[in-house]
Amino acid sequence: MSRNGIHAQRWGWDGKNEATFAGITGVPYDPANNYAEFYGGVIRASSTTFHNNRLSAEILGYPFPNSSNFSFCNFTRDVPTTTPSVNGDEGVNIFNTNGVSFSDCNFFRHGARGITAGDAAITVRSSDFRGLFHGVLVGSGSMPTGTVGIGLGSDQFANDFVENEYGVFSNGIHQLDVLLNNFEDNRTAGVRVAGETNYRIGDNNFSGNATGVELLNTTPAFGQYVYCGVHSGDDYAIMVRGQCNGMTFEDNEFNTQIGDVWLRPDNGTPGEISFDQGLQGNPVYNLFSEQESINDIIASLDPSEARFFNYYPGISNEGPVVNARLIPDCDINDPCVVTHQFFNHPVQAGFADDCLNLIHGLENPCLERACLDSVRNSLMWLQ
Predict the structure, then answer these.
(1) Residue 43: strand, helix, or coil
(2) 36, 126, 303, 368 - which has most CB atoms within 10 Å?
């Protein structure tokens, strides 16, 4: 019995039946039949169980669009790994090929990684990752890749990442889209993005994670957005380490245990995000944590470089508590516990909340005493 499951040859493999694989290994092949290099191929697996494998499937370099797909597959083991490790069992490894997709698959307690993709563009949807060190690990060396899509921005395609060390772990890929997924109780981070990367992390639900989104030296790439996330009970919602100067965040709802958006140095490099969050005529909307003990924005920056946070001042029919949550601390003049260089600027502009579903005062005029009292209280909060 091989230690591995399926190895994609040049020609490929189809599996469409209910089956349990405990070891099938293909033969490395090259066009000259010299067996000098590995060449990938196509694997199509549907309703298949990969059981007790050290590595269940592997797809190596393939120069054409790769139509490999795994649907309704289970990656399991008899004895669950109680402590996930980077050296544990693996589900599927993919290298130097674009187009492989996963849908409706379960990766349960394999130990190390559910899916690993190196220099490869993949799509993952409607799948469940539990008890792993890395749910999905993606990275790029020297060659650019296409888009790595985790979830497709629709409820029916949402992935679940539960009780992993990291849900999604990315290092230096061309484009990462993490759209409309669920991240729960991941021990280090739900999503971690490191190295120069363009990314969209949006419409995700985070609950009980040590950190919802961790960013590490993603500059100088631009097109870096964290938006429409709901953070319920994470220790930190967004943790920025080192230079992430292209990053903007908006339309997020924070209810964290320690901090909403924290900036930290990395090896002496200050933690930084985009110079301005929002613009004078185009503010950003976020609902920061309600508790007074939670510090919303804390920056460890060079004191000679001020940053500006342009926010909507929060005059709506939502009431004073919600309106106050639109206003971030820490302003540069607030008594926060860590050095910070943000000036908060209230910006009057057309109300343009995209996904917080707030009720705007001008669209819903006050006609009752209770509403007028709410607006009066909101104005007092702003003074």
Answers:
(1) strand
(2) 126
What lies within 8 Å, CB to CB, of 24 at 6+ separation is 2, 4, 5, 6, 7
Distance CA 267, CA 250 (A): 28
Cα-Cα-Cα-Cα torsion 283, 284, 288, 294, nearest 10 degrees, comes to -80
Residue at token pair 């649907």: 71
CA gap 10, 13 in Å, rounded: 10
More confident residue, 342 or 33: 342
- 320 near 381, Cβ under 8 Å? yes
Residues paired with 261 in a beta bridge: 238, 297
At 130 the pLDDT is 94
What is the number of residues in the chain? Answer: 383
Tens digit of pLDDT for each residue in 113-124? 999 999 999 999
Cα→Cα distances 378→287, 288, 317, 334, 367, Å: 15, 16, 10, 19, 16
Quick: pLDDT tens for 204-236: 999 999 999 999 999 866 789 999 999 999 999
Under 8 Å between Cβ of 326 and 346: no
Distance, in Å, from the CA atom of 86 to the CA atom of 203, rounded to the nearest integer, reads 29
From first CA to last CA, the distance across the chain in angstroms is 73
| Token pair of 83 as six digits | 């402590």
Residue 81: CB atoms within 10 Å: 17
